[in-house]
Structure formats: structure tokens, C-alpha cells
Design a protein that fits this description.
This protein is an alpha/beta fold and 379 residues long. The chain is 39% helix and 20% strand. It binds flavin mononucleotide.
């Protein structure tokens, strides 16, 4: 199998097989099936919300590449009159810089420096994209899910429910189908904002927001993923946040770190180290928690497995889809294709190699002759 992996890695530099998961199952007897927000996925690799899921063309490129799922850019909620309490997050900024970042553990990774925030076009434009996402998901082409940021009050204030109601209802109608899948973003810029100074305030948001979104949908079922920020209150508080978010259907763990000095969000190994430490604490605490999707510096198949060992049933990447072309071993195709090639087939750092290693070391057993990705998350 190792020899076959070497051959596949070379062979697929120019083009990936049409059905990635079927190929991996057939060639290696590895079942990569994964889950996100109740959806069954052919494999665990998806795209996190951001600048790479702004339009239909990007969705189509990702579908063609064989990505398992995409989370659309975060829209800022509004009420029926178009008022937005979080309007400061809807700023326009196009310039992104992809940079190397040195981490505390000594490893070099990548980060994207960008001063923008949420969706900066009209809500109607966003609903158009949500319609496409709903159709794509139901046709089985690729799961694509909207993301929103709603009003978050201070302790002595009430939530602006009119924003929750209007935004959720319109998203549900645009999505169509029997239920609305939705991510609620608590972003790193929010973590860096004075609004997130108080721990009790953050915990109240996490406790109350899922219910407010469900109520806003007016009876239509909503599946809610809360994308948790890395708050500035230290690592034990991250565990408190996970406990407070028990009302969600899934958690995305955890969004980028906030640099106070530079006033920007960043990633790299500091981010994955911190996220994995927190997920370890969540696991050893034994608390009941929603299902998990990992995010942060996923840049190899081995990193996917680090998140999976701590319970993440899928992963959401952003930075790894933005690297200079020379960083990918593939020689042709979209960045999504090149990223999938490295993440799955790299003979040393890829997901298949990592799962074969887990088998070899006795940490993962075949069932009915197959290794299963989801068995890693359950162990
Ligand atoms: C330029 C940029 C824009 C982003 N915008 C959003 C956003 O609008 N909503 C959100 O939930 N996450 C956003 N993210 C976070 C990513 O989805 C992802 O969770 C995070 O960057 C960690 O993954 P990575 O290390 O693979 O980049 C953004 C990230 C980047 C780099």
C-alpha cells in the first residue's frame, strides 16, 4: 500500500481522480466518511468561512475539485429595515497578505493578514448565494452552508431579536428544503473588541444565541454550528465556552488568534497548538458536548488526524487554500485540487499515510477489512 501511495502521489500531481473517496476506498480499503453539522461527507476536508467562499464560481471550483463542504462568507445580520447592530463588521477590504509566521514552538507556518471582516455587499446578494448553496447541497454536488454574525449585547442590554428573526427567516427561505444549516461566527475581531472584555458576557451569548436563532426561524428547524473564538481570557476559559455552548448542534473549534499589538487575526502553529490543547482539555473533562469540526492551521493530513483524535469529525481550512503555488507538490489544477492532493496523498504527511501509520502502531483497527476515519474520532 505504501508503494501504491507513492505511485498515486506522483500520478495525481497533474489531476485528481474524479471520485476521491471512492478511489481511496478501493485502493487502500480506507473509508474517509466524515460528518459536519449532521451532514454525511465523503471525506473530512472542507473550506472555512471567508474570502474564498464569496461567489458561485468559487463554489463551483471547489465542487469540481472534490471538496467535501464549504461554509459561505459570514453575513452581518439585519432587521427588516436593514439596520445592523454589528455594522462595524461589514467593512470592505480586499487586500490579503499570505505570510510565513514563526510560532512559539519553533515551527514555521503560514498566516493570512487581512483587515476586513464580514460580507460587504447587500443581504439580497448574500441570499442569492445561499439559494445556490441550498440547491448544491440537496443535489448531492457538495454541502455548502451559510454563516452569520448577529447582534451581541452588553450584559445590561437585550438582544435585538428583530435582527435574529428577520435574518434567520430570510436565510431559511433562501436555503429552501426542510431545515436551515447555519454557522454563527464569533470572530477573532470580536475577541479583540471591547465587547468581549467580560467573561460573563461571552458565556451569556453562547448560552442564549442558539435559542434566539431557533426562535427567529419561526418554527422551521435550524441546525446551528457555533464557531467559537479564541477569547483573550486564557485557556481554561475556552473550556468554559465549550460548556456554555451546549445548546448548539455543532461547534467549530476555534477561530484565529488575535494579536493585540498588530490589531490583526493570525494563525499558524500557535493557533493549532492552542486549539489542540483546549480540545484535549475538553476530551479529558468528559463533558457532554455538541459534535466538533476543527479549524486552525490544518496544513497536512497528519494535522487532520490530530484534530480527529480529539473528536473533530471534519476540518475547515482557509490559509492552506491560499499558499503560493510553489508550496504545493501538485503541478496543475486549482488551489483546492492541489491542496487536496497534498492533504490526502502525500506519502509522509498525508491523511492516508497517517491512517496507515495508526494501523501499524495498533491504534486503529480494520473493521470488515476497512480503516475508518470516524473511528479515529471515536477512540
Ligand atoms: C482572510 C480570512 C477571512 C476570514 N473570514 C471569516 C469569516 O468571515 N467568518 C468566519 O467564521 N471565519 C473567517 N475566517 C476564519 C477561517 O474560516 C478559519 O476558520 C481560520 O482562518 C482558521 O483556519 P486556517 O488556519 O486554515 O486559516 C477567515 C480567515 C481568513 C484568513
Amino acid at each position: 500500500m505504501r508503494a501504491r501511495l507513492e505511485r498515486d502521489f506522483e500520478r495525481f500531481r497533474g489531476e485528481l481522480p474524479h471520485d476521491l473517496a471512492a478511489h481511496v476506498r478501493e485502493a487502500y480499503r480506507i473509508d474517509l466518511s466524515a460528518r459536519y453539522l449532521g451532514f454525511s461527507l465523503p471525506h473530512p476536508i472542507g473550506k472555512g468561512s471567508g474570502q474564498l467562499s464569496l461567489n458561485q464560481e468559487q463554489l463551483e471550483t471547489d465542487r469540481a475539485a472534490g471538496l467535501a463542504f464549504v461554509v459561505l462568507k459570514t453575513v452581518i445580520a439585519e432587521d427588516a429595515a436593514g439596520a445592523r447592530a454589528m455594522s462595524a463588521w461589514a467593512i470592505h477590504e480586499t487586500r490579503m497578505r499570505v505570510e510565513k509566521v514563526h510560532s512559539g514552538s519553533g515551527l514555521d507556518g503560514w498566516t493570512v493578514t487581512w483587515k476586513g471582516r464580514g460580507w460587504d455587499r447587500s443581504f439580497d446578494d448574500y441570499l442569492e448565494l445561499v439559494r445556490t448553496a441550498g440547491d448544491m447541497t440537496r443535489s448531492g454536488a457538495m454541502v455548502a452552508v451559510p454563516s452569520a454574525k448577529y447582534h451581541l449585547p452588553r450584559m445590561d442590554q437585550a438582544f435585538r431579536e428583530s435582527e435574529y428573526d428577520h435574518t434567520t427567516e430570510r436565510l431559511a427561505v433562501a436555503w429552501g428544503g426542510e431545515f436551515l444549516p447555519l454557522e454563527k461566527d464569533f470572530s477573532p475581531t470580536l475577541a479583540g473588541d471591547a465587547l468581549a472584555d467580560e467573561r460573563d458576557r461571552i458565556l451569556r451569548w453562547l448560552r442564549e444565541v442558539p435559542e434566539l436563532i431557533r426562535k427567529g426561524a419561526g418554527g422551521a428547524p435550524v441546525r446551528i454550528a457555533l464557531k467559537l473564538m479564541n477569547a483573550r481570557h486564557g485557556e481554561p476559559f475556552q473550556l468554559e465556552m465549550v460548556k456554555a455552548a451546549a445548546g448548539a448542534d455543532a461547534l467549530v473549534c476555534f477561530n484565529r488568534l488575535w494579536s493585540e499589538s498588530r490589531g490583526v487575526a493570525y494563525g499558524g502553529y500557535d493557533l493549532s497548538d492552542r486549539n489542540l490543547r483546549t480540545l484535549e482539555a475538553v476530551k479529558s473533562s468528559g463533558i457532554r458536548r455538541p459534535s466538533l469540526s476543527g479549524t486552525g492551521n490544518v496544513s497536512s493530513g497528519r494535522m487532520i488526524l490530530e484534530y480527529a483524535k480529539l473528536g473533530c469529525e471534519s476540518v475547515q481550512l482557509h490559509t492552506f487554500f491560499q499558499l503560493p503555488l510553489s508550496e504545493y507538490p501538485a503541478t496543475a489544477g486549482s488551489r483546492t485540487q492541489r491542496a487536496l492532493h497534498a492533504l490526502l496523498f502525500h506519502p509522509v504527511s498525508g491523511l492516508i499515510a497517517g491512517m496507515l501509520d495508526l494501523e501499524q502502531s495498533g491504534r486503529l483497527q480494520r473493521r470488515n477489512g476497512e480503516l475508518r476515519f470516524l473511528d479515529v474520532t471515536a477512540s
